[in-house]
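ARCHIVE CARD
CATEGORY: sequence design from structure
SOURCE FIELD: tokenized fold
FIELD CONTENT:
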């Protein structure tokens, strides 16, 4: 292939054009062109890549990003720019989302930041980088909060299987959701095999044991077809759930021999974990 170098094909200060680049091969409309302290590459008569006079690499556009000095800009500037900056201090890397309808800082609509010192990733919103979400080594934080104790370290949801201390029961419904160090459970237990002993009903099988730093936590319960008439609540302790009511001023514990045929226990509770 013959390489043609043509420094006279352009006019004024321009050497070449997208349709007739100054350095080209046998394809007359693909090659390298020079324009006002910039270098560009064209294919099929259209400019594709440009290194601007400010040292920015532009892909799919001929207009510099409106914010910052070191950028990779991708996209049509009549719509939006996507700009990538790596700071020379090597402490922060940023991905900017800009709005071409504005200029300067006003065009800066959003930002993703990685802090090399703390190892945190942050998401910022329009104007002046207001932090909305940070992913830190402690977890997920919101609205610029940097306290490790406030970081959301976990989210999980699923099902669990009830396992009574005495006999067995039917797990008609049992789900849980863990947000950070708080767990919420929902359950429907029925058809207990033991309806004769005087033992307290204790349902094991919790997806997470209660926190050792908390003695107890409680939730609501609705019990049908039992001999004891009371307003029932569930009580969380260690790895199981117990049921208590108070109809005469003292606590009443729900026991197996108080269950009638067709008995059901609906309950939900939120408790802390380690």
């Amino acid at each position: 292939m013959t390489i043609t170098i043509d420094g006279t094909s352009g006019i004024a200060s321009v050497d070449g054009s997208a349709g007739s680049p100054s350095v080209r091969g046998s394809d007359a409309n693909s090659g390298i062109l020079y324009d006002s302290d910039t270098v560009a590459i064209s294919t099929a008569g259209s400019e594709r890549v440009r290194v601007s006079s400010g040292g920015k690499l532009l892909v799919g556009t001929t207009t510099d990003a409106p914010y910052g000095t070191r950028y990779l800009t991708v996209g049509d500037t009549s719509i939006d720019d996507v700009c990538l900056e790596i700071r020379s201090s090597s402490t922060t890397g940023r991905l900017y989302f800009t709005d071409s309808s504005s200029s300067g800082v006003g065009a800066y609509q959003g930002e993703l930041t990685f802090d090399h010192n703390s190892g945190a990733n942050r998401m910022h919103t329009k104007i002046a980088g207001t932090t909305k979400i940070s992913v830190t080594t402690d977890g997920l934080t919101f609205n610029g909060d940097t306290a490790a104790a406030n970081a959301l370290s976990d989210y999980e949801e699923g099902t669990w299987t009830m396992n009574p201390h005495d006999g067995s029961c039917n797990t008609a419904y049992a789900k849980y959701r863990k947000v950070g160090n708080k767990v919420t459970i929902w359950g429907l237990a029925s058809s207990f095999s033991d309806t004769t002993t005087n033992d307290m009903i204790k349902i094991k099988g919790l997806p997470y044991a209660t926190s050792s730093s908390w003695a107890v936590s409680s939730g609501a319960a609705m019990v049908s077809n039992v001999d004891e008439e009371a307003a029932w609540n569930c009580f969380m302790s260690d790895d199981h759930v117990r049921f208590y009511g108070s109809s005469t001023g003292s606590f009443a514990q729900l026991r197996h021999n108080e269950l009638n045929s067709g008995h059901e226990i609906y309950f939900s509770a939120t408790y802390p974990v380690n």
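CARD ANNOTATION: The radius of gyration is 34 Å. The chain has a mean pLDDT of 79.
SHELF: design records, drawer C
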